[in-house]
Design a protein that fits this description.
Length: 222
């Protein structure tokens, strides 16, 4: 079970500019503390003919589309052909992958969005990693702090992994689909190619190639 929670089981690291940040890590939440400084390191290597440096530690690809009403705080990298739409709020420590979409009124904070990720409508994504081509439906959010403010534990069946993190939202593997108005509770990990029904409240681990219908009802896709 623990292997399914590992980076190697969840992501194709060729689909993110942040691949080097995952070196030395086993589980994906270990990268969260490395995002801020990692952006500054990566940004310094980006070619000036492909990226503009805007403000303090903000790099935006020349091919990206950023609405004039969007707010981007550094450090941040907006990748090639990405789209940041009207009134998006990037609070800082965010990597938006190539071809990704950050939609209207969506808020990002301390995140890595792999290439082609879509968070297009009224989403909050904090202290999280979203894999290649993952998609969060309208109004779906990550909850990144427990109500009792204690460190987040990742639970998968009888397995419990202490993260030591007080702020940790969700990990979405490649090709994950999250239905509209769902809440991903702190420490949620969703395996590759899994689907989450709309209006779900998800906690713990959802295996790859499965469909989360309700708590206690998870079925295989094939």
């Amino acid at each position: 079970m623990s292997e399914q929670l590992m980076i190697k089981s969840l992501f194709d690291l060729k689909e993110t500019i942040a691949a080097d940040l995952f070196e030395g890590c086993i589980y994906p939440w270990e990268v969260l503390s490395k995002i801020k400084n990692g952006i500054i390191t990566i940004g310094a290597t980006l070619p000036a003919d492909e990226y503009d440096k805007v403000g303090e530690d903000i790099w935006i690809a020349k091919s990206a589309k950023v609405a004039p009403t969007a707010c981007i705080n550094g450090p941040a990298i907006i990748g090639k052909d990405a789209e940041v739409r009207h009134c998006a709020f990037i609070r800082g420590s965010a990597i938006v992958g190539e071809g990704a979409v950050v939609g209207n009124s969506t808020e990002l904070k301390n995140v890595i969005l792999f290439n082609k990720v879509q968070v297009p409508h009224y989403n909050y994504v904090g202290d999280s990693v979203l894999g290649f081509k993952s998609h969060m439906g309208a109004g779906s959010i990550t909850s990144n702090v427990k109500s009792d403010k204690t460190p987040v534990t990742v639970k998968a069946g009888e397995l419990k992994l202490e993260t030591g993190l007080k702020k940790f939202g969700a990990i979405l593997g490649d090709y994950v689909e999250v239905g509209c108005n769902s809440v991903l509770n702190p420490g949620t990990v969703i395996g590759r190619n899994a689907n989450i029904y709309p209006l779900s409240m998800v906690r713990g681990f959802v295996p790859e190639r499965s469909i989360y219908k309700t708590a206690g009802e998870i079925v295989g896709k094939y």
